[in-house]
Amino acid sequence: MEEILRKFSEVVRDPFSYGRNLKAASGKKMVGYVCTYVPEEIILAANAHPFRLFGTTGEMGKADAHLQAYCCSLVRGIMEEGLRGGTDFLDGIVFPHTCDSIQRLSDLWRMNVTAGFHLDAVLPVKLDTESARRYFVEVLGRLRRDLERELAVTIGDEELWRAVALMNELRANLRRIYDLRNDNPALLTGDALYTAVKAAMIMDRQEGNAMLAELAQAMAASPEKSPVAAVADRNGAAAAGKQQPIRLVMAGGICNHPRIHHFIEDAGGAVVWDDLCTGSRYFETPVAGDNDPLEAIAARFVNRAVCPAKHAGLTSRAENLVSLVKGKNARGVVFLLLKFCDPHAFDYPYLKTALDREGIPSLLLEVEDPLPAEGQLHTRFEAFLEML
What we know:
8 strands; four-stranded parallel sheet
């Protein structure tokens, strides 16, 4: 298991080197994407590789010449890498119609980053109608034709179904890893879990899927450990006297700061599930059906849990979050929001109200790069968990 986790960490630490090496070894075209609303199956069916961009956590001087400082760090970081040339191995990029910042990033990328083709997938915002489903299928058909043109390939239904099967298997492996860790959080630290999810969005899907399956098998075969064994291993025997960790659910956009989990676990907690773009929203709801592959792919997007950039009912996100907390036997929620992420900030008050109504405590953590001082974070988590 340690070797698999080390490989995942290497990929996440230097994703662009991995992408360049994969391109050289496989000869595949590399297609970048920035959000889980991009249908990876269509890219895979074109015999290309879908490569998720997460931006940079370093200096953003080039991006700041094009984007206001109040844009979120994800958008600014992706733009920075494009302007620096870090993404020059990509043969193209697909931008979905999601939040305003991603849409403006698409405009700026098209005008300032010349490497590769540029495609927009203008997806519907309101997803809970039959017309939205039909429109979603039309958008996927247009993306299919655009990729055929740009990559000089033909994307047949057979290729799409093979890609669907691969992605469904990958999602099932991630779900199994989550389930195993939900049963026993000591099997895998939180930062290792989220590193594995991010690596799955970057790596060759066949390779990543095989490694996820091996990780799940190793977790299932792992001997029983103390619930705080992972923390004790990191912090020494002092942690060994702690009781079972306090179970938490994390909600928000992306988890670009895996060290957050160190502070939670050191304070005596464990994130056993999440509602994150770099978490359950990536693997929940497999593609189902055997008629038209585009209709099946569209149905998955329409039926899965939405993010704030989409609408599927006035209370659907709150109902999903409350259901997660109760279903996973969690005692509280940590909201992990990127600073200046307006969609998630707008949703937060109504989500908190729904949790308060159910007697579920929550903690709001708004983060940017760099993170707040370690002592400050540790104190906040420790106080929250002591309250629980």
